[in-house]
Design brief:
Two copies of one chain form a homodimer. Chain A is an alpha/beta fold. Chain A has helices at 31-44, 57-64, 68-81, 126-134, 162-172, 190-204, 219-230, 245-253, 270-276, 299-312, 370-379, 386-397, 400-426, 452-461, 491-505, and strands at residues 2-6, 18-22, 84-87, 91-94, 214-216, 236-241, 257-264, 267-268, 282-285, 315-319, 344-349, 361-364, 431-432, 441-446, 467-468, 481-485.
């Protein structure tokens, strides 16, 4: 660790110099990521208190001998994450309204209950360090206005047939089915694994036996276990850039180094990945609909990715998060369907298909890893509630899941169309919206030179939910764009939100 | 790694020498644990195939320059775990009936579905190595005859009021409560955290605010996250010896070294722990009712343990697994109740109180670690099903949990008494049963010189569930004893099982 005394920014109120502990740069870590990580940690640990001013980018650039563009990019990212705010006349300051429990460590115990004296926690493990750097909980911005119009990544759980769900519970919770209250196999109950295998064959083009399916609480949990089994400290892992921040955080928590692989219209640029990090051990990908850009991974890229993984014995984690919602065509088959060399973990959640509070997902690990994966699950979380598993199995087997997905697909397609229609009328010259063909959200480019971080901040202040694309990347230059959701909002809400967006950004 | 060519045992059928890859001894690892671990790994990886013969203990002792007692102790432990069997005339052989999916890695993919070519997985991380060494899933012996009479650690889930549980589900699964289908806080829904805090105050003498409580799927999950936050590779951790094997495996999976601390009538011997591993970072303990010996940690020992943890900044993980079932007295308060220095994680499960398939538990981390713990949970598994959390909150708030626990306490007390009574009549001179004052199981000493590993094997063959105490330890000399459960079996079943035990062991 190197202690860097940052010069007092001219605008600082108290005039004193403030020391910031900037951690070591990790192997392969970019300067930008390193600075971002270090400042996050300083904020999370309270070394940079809420309300304190960061140095001007020019001064910090001179002191650290970095380009000013790097500093600005880091500040923009912190802005996008809500860690800092820009104040007219006083530059960039640590968000004074950071939730109190967001700051992690080390900190005094001020709870007072239980009679405990104050104590501190110094992170020493990769998980603890990673968490300390990011603050708690993930994601930072969900608490405030999760349901603000156009918030991305939300499904319409209020349209879920809760009456059907209640009846299925009533059918399982009977004295004649008391056996379900006992302990179940760590891998999941056979009925649900069979139902998922059939669902995968029908909906995802993946033909695997029920014995290959593992039930988990969430894709995040499957990713966590997969990464713990495969990634040793300092191993390299490919991440999509831009990509899903939750995956990035799990992989960082292993102490692994992330190689950011760019996305283009064909999906993840496999050739670039092979040139940046040819010997990576792991790749996290969203081939069916890239998160957040929405492109599908092109067929040749799929073959390249699988061939690369096979040639270097890397594992590919396929997060198949909302591919069932494809509006005008059959869903693209999962990458796993072409996985002849047995390198792919296929994981998917029922949370977006049904409702997020469900917390039931599945993973199909590579066959050679299956027993290891199940054993790891059996000593960590083991299985989710067994009755719930039985209820979901019946929901799938009875055709209710298919019916619900079809209904939601129509609903979401209409909402995507409502968004496109409103955008045509209100966003001319402001935002360029591609055609939404799938999923729950869409990324629209800012075409008039507005910065996305600033735009998202102003929209948030106006009660709107779009996020800056910058929040999905940590190292690269990105076009300015907003990620926005349409699936969870009525057509009337979408119409008025689109109009409001136009006003705010004008 | 050192490749040791073990001499062909005289009795081997094929007459060829077999090489066994014995791993490096870990820092602080005993010779016995090292040999046990290496042989387990050789069996799990298929290097020692089912049916193959192990060398005679005398020959192996000579070759490895170890005492013959060490070899015998390791063989006994493998016997207790069911990895090997003793054959009259051919010595110790790898269990020919090892479940096929028990062997972990590396192995060929023989599934054939999905068109995947065979591939292998070489463990490189501490989790993968730990899992590979132990086989899958945990615990090895549950599959075969889980419900065999006198199997330990089982509660009577068939007495759970499933009708009440169904009604509570029906009340939550209403269109007016659709909000429960949305995403919930990673820490758990406020209503359940409040209910748990009140339960802890009433039942465990621990006064903490709801904000301090974290909902998890299982104590195992809480232990996994706590250990990942606190234990860096090669750190030392105290484990009770004998102790719960599931906890041992999670801690080993961190790459940490385990210091086995002996148990006596006052519980874990803190002075011994301080002499064996004074600078340990973590201690796993079961203070209310030691698993599996059943003793409560004495008051002076509690003070010593907390003072030690505070002095070296270690964390104590208190697994409060079945303390509510205390038959003739009020439950002993949790260790956490005296945790003035904020060093204790208190974790407990509703699985044993209600039914094992529930998969809802709680943990109260040290206050200074709470935000870090919640952040780690938010990027790994996040929260269990939110409706289920609401149902459990109402089950607690309505007094149903208390009612059920009181009912079960009477039932289990009667069954403990039935066991004691039958033992008095049938086990004279064979087994010495202490008075069961709490919990679901009890450990009885074999007084006539019978070995516990052999006894458990013979009982298993006769359809009975007691386990050898040897299965709960990996390093020490242990008295020969059987761990047996009474809570899940009717008085008639207990009576006939006790009689059968006497016959089998005669």
């Amino acid at each position: 660790m190197s202690l860097v005394h940052l010069a007092t920014p001219r605008r600082a109120a108290d005039g004193r110099a403030w020391p910031v502990l900037l951690g070591e740069r990790a192997l392969g870590e970019s300067l930008q990521r390193w600075l971002h990580r270090s400042l996050r940690l300083a904020i999370a640990s309270g070394k940079l208190a809420p309300g304190s001013t960061l140095p001007a980018s020019r001064a910090l650039a001179a002191q650290l001998q970095l380009s000013r563009g790097t500093i600005t990019a880091v500040y923009d990212q912190l802005l996008a994450e809500g860690c800092v705010v820009a104040r007219r006349g006083s530059g960039t300051v640590v968000n004074p309204k950071l939730p109190d429990d967001w700051r992690v460590s080390p900190r005094r115990n001020r709870s007072g209950d239980g009679g405990e004296r104050g104590s501190t926690f110094e992170p020493r493990t990769s998980l603890a360090r990673s968490v300390a750097q990011w603050g708690t909980p993930f994601p930072l911005l969900t608490n405030a206005g999760e349901q603000a119009p156009l918030t991305p990544h939300l499904c319409d759980f209020r349209s879920f047939p809760i009456d059907v769900w209640r009846r299925l519970h009533a059918r399982q919770l009977r004295p004649s089915r008391l056996g379900l209250l006992g302990d179940a196999p760590a891998q999941g109950i056979p009925a649900l694994r069979k139902a998922i295998a059939e669902h995968l064959a029908m909906a995802r083009g993946v033909s695997v036996a029920a014995e290959r399916v593992v039930v988990v609480a969430s894709v995040q949990q499957a990713l966590d276990i997969a990464a713990r089994l495969v990634l040793a400290p300092a191993d390299l892992a490919w991440m999509e850039d831009p990509g899903y921040p939750g995956a990035r955080r799990v992989i960082e928590a292993m102490g692994a180094a992330i190689a950011d692989v760019p996305i283009d219209v064909q999906g993840i640029d496999v050739e670039q990945g092979m040139s940046i990090a040819p010997a990576a051990r792991f790749a996290y990908v969203t081939p069916s609909r890239q998160a957040p850009l929405g492109v599908a991974l092109a067929p040749q890229r799929r073959q390249r990715l699988l061939a690369w993984a096979s040639s270097v014995s890397a594992y590919v984690f396929e997060d198949d998060y909302d591919s069932e919602f494809r509006f005008n065509a059959r869903p693209v088959p999962a990458l796993k369907a072409a996985d002849a060399a047995d390198r792919v973990f296929l994981a998917g959640s029922f949370g977006k298909l049904m409702f997020p509070g469900l917390r039931l997902s599945y993973v199909v690990p590579p066959a050679a890893l299956l027993p290891t994966f199940v054993a790891a699950l059996s000593i960590t979380a083991r299985h989710p509630n067994a009755v719930l598993q039985a209820v979901l199995a019946e929901f799938i087997d009875s055709g209710e899941l298919d019916r619900h997905v079809r209904r939601m697909r129509r609903l979401y397609a209409a909402r995507a169309e409502a968004l496109a229609d409103a955008a045509r009328r209100h966003w001319q010259g402001q935002l360029a919206l591609p055609a939404a063909q799938a999923g729950l959200d869409i990324t629209a480019a800012l075409v008039d030179g507005t910065g996305d971080v600033d735009a998202a901040r102003r929209l948030r202040a106006a009660g709107l939910g779009p996020r800056a694309l910058r929040a999905y990347t940590s190292t690269r230059w990105m076009p300015c764009a907003l990620v926005m959701g349409f699936a969870a909002f009525s057509e009337a809400t979408i119409e008025s939100a689109v109009r409001k967006v136009a006003q705010v950004l004008r």
